[in-house]
Each structure stands twice: as structure tokens, then as C-alpha cells.
Design goal:
19 helices, 6 strands, four-stranded mixed β-sheet, two-stranded antiparallel ribbon
Length: 437
């Protein structure tokens, strides 16, 4: 489904045509709902049959009515259920009676049987965007399919229009799905196939848009295509398009969440290209709209933190890396003393490994404490850190480094953050301990 799908539904809305008169009731009801969303009075996908809705309906209905039309908002609130995108949520114990209803004889029928209505999740997300609302307003008014020229005019924004962003997001998730399932794909072929759906966009601009999508996903804690480095200066509309895609493709998102690979990474003998000297760009503070997102959002960061096999494989990877560095610096004796502390001495130390410092290519006897965080996603993917780990990084900052291992199931690499962790990252509380004391 996409914006064009809902445009077609709105333009072909099936109004009551009894007595030779086309009733404006369904059109007025949908416009009223869009008005309330635009005004910020409906922030979640719950449409109550309340005074706000009745007042908004009356304003729209009075613009559209003819002499025979009566202000009966209970009728479209009930009969919109036949359009496929409007859903009733019933009051307890009313299902059997409701299923026998063919109409609502008055507002009392709504009050007795229906708790509230909702839209398709994707449609609700689409309606957060002003240009999309204008397009669907027009589709309702004309009750005809729009021309390409009019559609382009209505969707015209400073930058990519909604349909271009939508095509890019769909293509991106297709690649992401293949990547996370270990399926081969060609970025070039995807880009070439996508170009025909865009308004003459260059190869570079398409790639930049894919990088913008990576940025949106990083901000949301989703995995992303590591070959598309996140670029955060994206148009606000792009985030709305991503949210609409997530709402419409929940099964696909759940499938991504179920991707697990507990196998140990094959042993690497050439460590020269493993260390990445460049740290990720620090993500700017994110301003998130004050409303609930509809798609169930798997917490990939928490899932990776709970994946013991992935964590242990990443720690083994760093142990081998550290031993290789120390041997290369002429200290095989120190290499033999690299300690897997979390395994040998237990969790809760505030670090995972003990190794030794190397300064200007010369190994030293000075102990270094290493915390390892491993992800199968790209280098900008967020990670979890405990209060204890953070406190240890601050107290032992001269001897501490956090090693971030990324792209673990492809060509694993790592970068290091020496000293206090909060020098490099923004920290946001995500979990709380609940005590009865």
C-alpha cells in the first residue's frame, strides 16, 4: 500500500446516492478527522465520537450540504466501515449485536456499541504530513482520480516530494531485508531500478537520500545498511514516510526482528584492516513529535545486548585482536596475559577484558580495561551501557577504552573510544529498576 492506494480509495469513496442526491456525509467526516489531526487534537489513532469530532464535522458538512442533506454525523461514522480503512472498536459484550447492524438509526447506536474508530495505521501516519492531507482533501472534494500534473502540484515541497521519498524508502527496506537475511543484492541495480520512479534525480542524490534514510533508522534504533553512512540533514517529511512504511509493513519489521545468527565469526588471521580510526559522527539531539508511533518497534539494541552468543563472539574477536597487536609490538608474553575478565571473574566488573597499553608502537606493562559492545549493524548503531560500566569508564578513564565491534556478521571491524564514554556519545535513559523499597 502507498499514498496512491489511499488517493484512489478517497477519490472513489462510495457515498450514499439515494433519491438521486450524492450525500456529502462520508466526505465531511473524513475531512473533519483530517482537520483534527492537522490541529494536533488527534495525536493517536483513536477517533472518538465526541463533541470535537461533531463540531469539526458540522463545519465541513455545512460547506458541502445541499437543501436535502441533514446533519447526521452518526451515519458516516458508522458506514465508513465499508470503505476498508475505517475500523470500529467495540464496547465489551456488544460484538454479537453489532454484527447484525446494517445502519445506525441515531447517535445512541454509536454510544451503545462502538468505543471508538480508527484508521489503517499507515493512513494515520500519512495524514501527519500537510502535503499528503492536501492531496487527499482534493481527492475527496473531486471524488475523481487526480491527474499527474495536479498531484505533482499538490505534493510539491522544497525538495523531494512524498512519492519520491516513498519509492526510496521502499527500495531501501528491500535492500535491508536482503542484507539482514544474508541474501545477495546489487546496490547499483537497485538504484537503476529506482531512478525511473523519480523526477530525474542523479545517482549522487539517490545515494544521499539512502544515507538520509539510514540516519532516520539510526535515530529510531533500527538496523541500517552500513554501506549507506547516515547523513542527518534530511527533510522532516522523510521521517514521516519511514513511519508510514513501518506502520504498513509490520510483518516485515517483525521478520527483521526475528533474524538471529548465533554462529561464531570465522577466525581472522589478517588484523591490519580491522581497526577503524574514525569514530562515528555524533548524532545531533533529536526532536521527536509529541505523539505515539503506531508501528510496533522492535528494540534491536536490547535484542543484541541480550544475544549472549553475539556478545561472547565479539569479545573473543577483541581478545584475538589485542593478542595480535601485542605480538606485533614484540610482547608475546603480554599477549598471553590478555584476560577475558567477564568470563574468568564474572560480570559486574565494569569491563570485559584486561589487556595492555601500546604507546607509539611500544607495548607497556600498564593494564588497560576494555568494554566490548558488538553489533551486526553499522558503526552508528546505538548500544546499551549500564550505570556500572559508565561509572567505571569515568573512574578509570586513563586505563579504559570501549571497543565498538560492528558489521560483525559481514566483515567485522572495530573502533575505540578511550576514557569516559560520555565524551563520545549522548546518553539517554531507557531502562529503570523497579524496587519495592
Amino acid at each position: 500500500m502507498s499514498l496512491l492506494y489511499y488517493e484512489k480509495l478517497f477519490s472513489r469513496l462510495n457515498p450514499n446516492r439515494s433519491r438521486g442526491n450524492v450525500s456529502p456525509h462520508k466526505i465531511a467526516m473524513l475531512q473533519a478527522v483530517m482537520d483534527l489531526i492537522a490541529a494536533g487534537e488527534v495525536e493517536s489513532n483513536r477517533i472518538d465520537y465526541d463533541q470535537r469530532l461533531l463540531d469539526a464535522f458540522t463545519r465541513r458538512f455545512n460547506e458541502l450540504r445541499s437543501g436535502q442533506d441533514r446533519n447526521n454525523p452518526h451515519l458516516p461514522y458508522f458506514h465508513l466501515r465499508s470503505e476498508g480503512f475505517w475500523h470500529h472498536h467495540l464496547k465489551p459484550g456488544q460484538r454479537e449485536v453489532y454484527q447484525k447492524l446494517t445502519t445506525a438509526s441515531g447517535p445512541g447506536v454509536i454510544d451503545k456499541h462502538i468505543a471508538h474508530a480508527s484508521l489503517d495505521d499507515e493512513l494515520f501516519e500519512l495524514l501527519q504530513n500537510q502535503a499528503v492531507r492536501e492531496l487527499l482533501y482534493t481527492a475527496l472534494y473531486t471524488n475523481l482520480e487526480l491527474s499527474d500534473g495536479l498531484r505533482k502540484e499538490l505534493l510539491n515541497v522544497d525538495g523531494w516530494d512524498w512519492l519520491e521519498c516513498e519509492a526510496c524508502v521502499q527500495d531501501y527496506f528491500s535492500m535491508l531485508f536482503k542484507e539482514m537475511h544474508g541474501m545477495p543484492y546489487s546496490k547499483t541495480k537497485h538504484r537503476e531500478g529506482l531512478a525511473s520512479k523519480l523526477n530525474g534525480r542523479s545517482k549522487g542524490s539517490i545515494e544521499f537520500k539512502h544515507q538520509n534514510i539510514s540516519a532516520v533508522l539510526v535515530e529510531m534504533g533500527f538496523p541500517y545498511i552500513s554501506g549507506y553512512k547516515p547523513r542527518f540533514n534530511y527533510q522532516a517529511q522523510l521521517r514521516e514516510v519511514v513511519l508510514a512504511h513501518l506502520a504498513a509493513h509490520q510483518d516485515e519489521i517483525d521478520t527483521l526482528a526475528d533474524v538471529h545468527d548465533d554462529t561464531v565469526k570465522p577466525y581472522i588471521t589478517d588484523w591490519d584492516g580491522v581497526l577503524d580510526e574514525t569514530l562515528p559522527d555524533r548524532i545531533p539531539e533529536i526532536v521527536i513529535p509529541n505523539r505515539n508511533y503506531l508501528a510496533r518497534k522492535p528494540n534491536y539494541t536490547v535484542m543484541e545486548a541480550a544475544n549472549r552468543a553475539l556478545g561472547e563472539s565479539g569479545e573473543q574477536f577483541v581478545i584475538d585482536f589485542e593478542k595480535s597487536r601485542l605480538e606485533g609490538a614484540g610482547r608475546p608474553d603480554l599477549a598471553r596475559e590478555v584476560e577475558w575478565s567477564s568470563k574468568d571473574r564474572g560480570d559486574g566488573l565494569g569491563y570485559d577484558l584486561r589487556s595492555f597499553a601500546i604507546v607509539e608502537g611500544e607495548a607497556q606493562d600498564r593494564e588497560m580495561y576494555i568494554e566490548v559492545k558488538t553489533t551486526a549493524s553499522g558503526k552508528s548503531h546505538p548500544f546499551l551501557i549500564t550505570d556500572n560500566e559508565l561509572a567505571f569508564s569515568r573512574e578509570y578513564s586513563e586505563q579504559y577504552s570501549l571497543y565498538r565491534v560492528y558489521d560483525f556478521r559481514k566483515k567485522a571491524r572495530l573502533f575505540r573510544m578511550p576514557g569516559k564514554v560520555d565524551r563520545f556519545v549522548n546518553l539517554r535513559p531507557k531502562l529503570y529498576q523497579a524496587n519495592f523499597s
